[in-house]
């Protein structure tokens, strides 16, 4: 049990050290060691859990001292948020922190005593989350050490606050461990608030006006979720007399009316954290932060906290109104965000929207709440964490090297920056090419939504997968296209520590693809079994074998084709330009008879999609749906 | 595993290109007659490909050959998946991966005409994919399985229960086979403003490889059409063949009578048709369950 405490407290203790050490080199070293120790601790935890026969481990039944400490810390957090809100004259946002904190305080002092239960629980899902946070998060920190060096080299006008930055990173990691290991809803609420505040601090890092603005948007949207979470917790505590997450799920599955509204409210809170419509705007705004914080927010932490809670609640949402709401919002977000992603040519913008879109699919999986969809959702989460972290870091490194993260400027990147471009291709291919992660998950989600008779979700998945394919393929096409900028081989400025992180992520990505059937049998199947009590295999044996064969072929065919083509003599000619060639493929003869440089561009449909308008309509529409559905849920119980 | 699950894939590998090539030949002959020309022999596509195969590899660069080869092989894998009676949704997904390799082979050249065509090809993929995925959903709803083999064992004749999916699939088919009015990424004839769209930079042996892959694809798509009719009864294979013939003749007629439309309009028409026909059919099937 010591390990779980260590996992949570160690990063929290390293954080002030990061702040106090002003020497960049030394702080970097300490960060490496701390990240390494944290990863090692995750494996120690897994070792203990394995010795326990992979059964859930529970600790800390009596926690009076810890409870007091957490309450005190929560009050401090409230004071800090209020201070920040007053400092920047966003007075009303402070209410979103004060109200839930006072509510929780009132509940702890005057509410009924909760039944006894273990406050820390280690099971398949939390182990998976620990792995994601530990490994992906840890390597993001390794990457950040190198990246921030280059960042401040390029952005001289931004104040160098690296000690502060690394402090927040470690706080964030610690809070995430606390979040996924806690079984107490009160503890979960506390760690929830920490992650909200940490993301606020990361986004506002540059202190530019836009950064402050976006940071406050992220803050208030996440605090709004925090209010719903606090109300849900107190409501359940008052009516049922427990503050255990697992009691809540159990009662939710059993259909106890006391659990219906809390489940709905907590699921609503999770939507804010997972940046689903109508709350997506905060994650898009978070792009202004330096890349490591984007990578952290998008892959290992923050949004995954929302998805984690939704997966936990999934059994309690199967086939009821709350589940329908979550599934609808998820499916809707999957589709709309993927359409919006088509209109973007900022690399980080596409990544942010694709995160929202993929989280939508995971949310929909949780909302349907069947075994198949959870199975699919878990895989989506694994693939998404690794791939998004890889892609964000890669785009960041590319930006540091070529000075732009616009996809249009990545034309022929494979020939200019072979290493970074290859990593990018691995990351993107892992996200959408058959039969890797995304597709097998889509297969399973589609099957489950048919079984569930969820027609809207079927349509969302069918159309959303077409649009998803579109924006990923055109990015891939840009990377491999030749001509207008090839020949200018850029000097790769990626640092060693950034390269290490990228390599590890790429290896993880390929490993996940190749080992998918194995991971399914050894890890994800038992996870689903543990969650639902029983389990029938999602992928039939036959399909599993077919999949292994296809996976092998998809790797082998292009390699084989490449080897064959290498033996083949090719007669290289100029490309067709209606006779206006000038002797190379990057120029043509213009109407004045001079040489003109080619510029090739992708389709973005900006005039059809109208980003801002679509965003506004979808936000309003989905907010209306959520309000109506929540009212229906509440009305159904009170009737 | 029944013998049919072994025989069909073998037949596909051997006969696939012949069926596809023959269809190509019929297309050219009929189109010529519709336009008042005599037209080439039905076997002309085979002569063309044989000649192209014997030429050297000519291209803007070396990578195109490898990518086209990957496209061809993945297309064959897709066909094997489908004809061996395994999961239809999975084969559709692998089919889209194959199409992406075609896109790579086109966009990779960096030639201006090819780049436009490759973008349009992507739009085409985006246009037809929902209809094809929904067709799989329809099969699952009626037959209770994604397995092609199980679908064939079903008691009901599929088209009677899923006419809407079939109509939407016809739209998808017209896009997939690049038939007018949805042939925005290519044209079969020499007068097209984008030269030959995605084929602009494919010459000699590269073009032959592409052609063979297209034949395999036609054979596969016609197999999907036949699945709407075919069941256990041997006679159903005959009717399946009739349906395939009728659909293909319809596609040729469409190709010769319709004018090409803009790619945005194509996307709108195909998606609206998909929502309308597939969506309605889906709704009815779900209510009947």
Could you walk me through the main structural features you see in this protein, from its secondary elements to its overall organization?
The complex is a heterodimer of chains A (639) and B (289). With 639 residues, chain A is an all-alpha fold. Chain A has a domain at 1-317. Helix content of chain A is 75%, strand content 2%. Chain A contains 25 helices and five strands. Chain A has helices at 2-20, 24-51, 64-87, 91-110, 124-154, 162-181, 185-203, 209-240, 245-254, 257-273, 281-285, 291-300, 303-317, 321-342, 347-368, 371-402, 413-416, 418-432, 437-451, 455-480, 496-514, 516-532, 541-567, 606-609, 611-638; strands at 57-59, 120-122, 570-572, 587-589, 595-597. The mean pLDDT of chain A is 88. The model of chain B has no long low-confidence stretch (mean pLDDT 89). Chain B has helices at residues 4-34, 44-53, 63-83, 88-107, 112-143, 148-153, 158-161, 163-176, 204-227, 234-257, 263-288, and one strand at 57-59. Chains A and B meet through helix 19, helix 20, helix 23 and strand 3 of A and strand 1, helix 3, helix 4, helix 5 and helix 11 of B.
């Amino acid at each position: 049990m010591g390990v779980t405490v260590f996992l949570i407290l160690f990063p929290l203790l390293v954080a002030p050290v990061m702040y106090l050490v002003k020497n960049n080199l030394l702080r970097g070293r300490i960060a490496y060691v701390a990240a390494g120790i944290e990863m090692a601790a995750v494996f120690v935890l897994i070792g203990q859990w394995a010795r326990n026969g992979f059964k859930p481990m529970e600790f800390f039944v009596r926690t009076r001292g810890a409870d007091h400490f957490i309450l005190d810390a929560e009050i401090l957090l409230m004071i800090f948020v209020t201070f920040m809100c007053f400092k920047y004259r966003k007075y009303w946002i402070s209410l979103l922190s004060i109200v839930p904190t006072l509510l929780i305080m009132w509940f702890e002092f005057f509410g009924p005593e909760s039944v006894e239960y273990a406050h820390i629980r280690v099971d398949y899902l939390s182990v998976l989350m620990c792995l994601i946070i530990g490994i992906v998060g840890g390597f993001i920190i390794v990457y950040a050490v190198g990246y921030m060096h280059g960042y401040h080299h390029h952005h001289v006008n931004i104040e160098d606050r690296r000690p502060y930055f690394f402090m927040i990173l470690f706080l964030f990691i610690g809070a995430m461990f606390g979040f996924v290991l806690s079984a107490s809803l009160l503890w979960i609420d506390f760690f929830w608030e920490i992650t909200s505040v940490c993301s606020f601090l990361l986004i506002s890092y540059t202190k530019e006006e836009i950064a402050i603005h976006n940071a406050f948007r992220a803050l208030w949207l996440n605090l709004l979720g925090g209010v719903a979470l606090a109300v849900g917790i107190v409501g359940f505590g008052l009516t049922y007399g427990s503050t255990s997450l697992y009691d809540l799920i159990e009662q939710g599955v059993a259909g106890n009316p006391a659990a219906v509204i809390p489940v709905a409210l907590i699921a609503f809170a999770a939507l804010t954290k997972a940046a689903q419509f109508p709350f997506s705007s905060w994650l898009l705004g978070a792009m202004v932060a330096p890349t490591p914080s984007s990578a952290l927010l998008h892959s290992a932490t923050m949004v995954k906290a929302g998805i984690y809670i939704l997966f936990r609640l999934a059994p309690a949402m199967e086939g009821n109104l709350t589940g329908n709401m979550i599934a609808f919002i998820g499916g809707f977000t999957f589709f709309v965000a993927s359409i919006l992603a088509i209109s973007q040519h900022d690399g980080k913008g596409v990544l942010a929207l694709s995160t929202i879109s993929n989280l939508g699919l995971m949310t929909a999986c949780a909302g349907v709440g069947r075994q198949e969809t959870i199975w699919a959702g878990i895989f989506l989460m694994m693939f998404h964490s690794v791939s998004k972290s890889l892609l964000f870091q890669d785009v960041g490194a590319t930006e540091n090297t070529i000075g732009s993260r616009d996809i249009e400027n990545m034309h022929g990147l494979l020939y200019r920056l072979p290493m970074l471009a290859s990593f990018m291709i691995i990351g993107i291919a892992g996200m959408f090419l058959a039969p890797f992660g995304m597709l097998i998950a889509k297969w399973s989600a589609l099957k489950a939504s048919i079984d569930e008779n969820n027609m809207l979700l079927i349509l969302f998945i069918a159309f959303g997968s077409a649009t998803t394919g579109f924006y990923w393929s055109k990015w891939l096409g840009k990377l491999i296209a030749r001509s207008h900028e090839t020949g200018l081989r850029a000097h790769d400025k990626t640092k060693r520590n950034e390269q290490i992180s990228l390599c590890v992520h790429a290896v993880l990505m390929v490993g996940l693809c190749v080992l998918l059937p194995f991971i399914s049998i050894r890890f994800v199947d038992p996870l689903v079994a543990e969650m639902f009590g029983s389990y029938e295999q999602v992928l039939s044996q036959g399909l599993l074998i077919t999949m292994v064969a296809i996976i092998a072929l998809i790797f082998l065919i292009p390699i084989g084709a490449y080897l064959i083509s290498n033996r083949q003599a090719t007669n290289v000619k100029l490309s067709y330009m209606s006779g206006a060639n000038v002797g190379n493929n990057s120029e043509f003869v213009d109407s004045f008879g001079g040489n003109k440089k080619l510029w090739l561009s992708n389709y973005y449909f900006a005039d059809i999609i109208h980003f801002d308008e679509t965003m506004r309509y979808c936000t309003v529409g989905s907010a209306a749906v959520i309000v109506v559905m929540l009212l229906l849920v509440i009305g159904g119980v009170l009737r | 595993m029944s013998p049919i699950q072994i025989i069909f894939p073998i037949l596909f590998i051997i006969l696939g290109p012949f069926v596809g090539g023959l269809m190509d030949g019929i297309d050219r002959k009929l189109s010529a007659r519709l336009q008042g020309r005599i037209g080439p022999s039905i076997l002309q596509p085979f002569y063309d490909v044989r000649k192209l195969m014997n030429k050297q590899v000519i291209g803007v660069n070396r990578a195109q050959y490898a990518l086209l080869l990957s496209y061809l092989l993945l297309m064959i894998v897709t066909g094997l998946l489908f004809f061996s009676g395994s999961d239809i949704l999975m084969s559709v997904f692998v089919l889209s991966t194959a199409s992406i390799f075609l896109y790579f082979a086109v966009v990779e050249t960096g030639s201006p005409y090819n780049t436009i065509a490759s973008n349009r090809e992507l739009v085409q993929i985006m246009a037809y994919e929902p209809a094809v995925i929904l067709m799989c959903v329809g099969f699952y709803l009626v037959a209770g399985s994604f397995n092609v083999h199980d679908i064939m064992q079903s008691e009901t004749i599929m088209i009677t229960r899923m006419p809407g999916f079939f109509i939407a699939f016809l739209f998808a088919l017209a896009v997939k086979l690049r038939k007018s009015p949805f042939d925005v990424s290519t044209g079969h004839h020499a007068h097209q403003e984008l030269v030959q769209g995605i084929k602009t930079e494919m010459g000699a042996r590269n073009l032959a490889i592409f052609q063979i892959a297209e034949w395999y694809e036609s054979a596969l798509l016609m197999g999907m059409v036949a699945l709407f009719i075919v069941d256990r009864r041997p006679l159903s294979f005959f009717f399946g063949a009739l349906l395939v013939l009728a659909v293909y003749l319809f596609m040729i007629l469409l190709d010769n009578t319709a004018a090409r439309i803009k790619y945005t309009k194509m996307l709108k028409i195909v998606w609206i048709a998909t929502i309308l026909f597939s969506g309605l059919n889906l709704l009815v099937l779900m209510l009947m369950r």
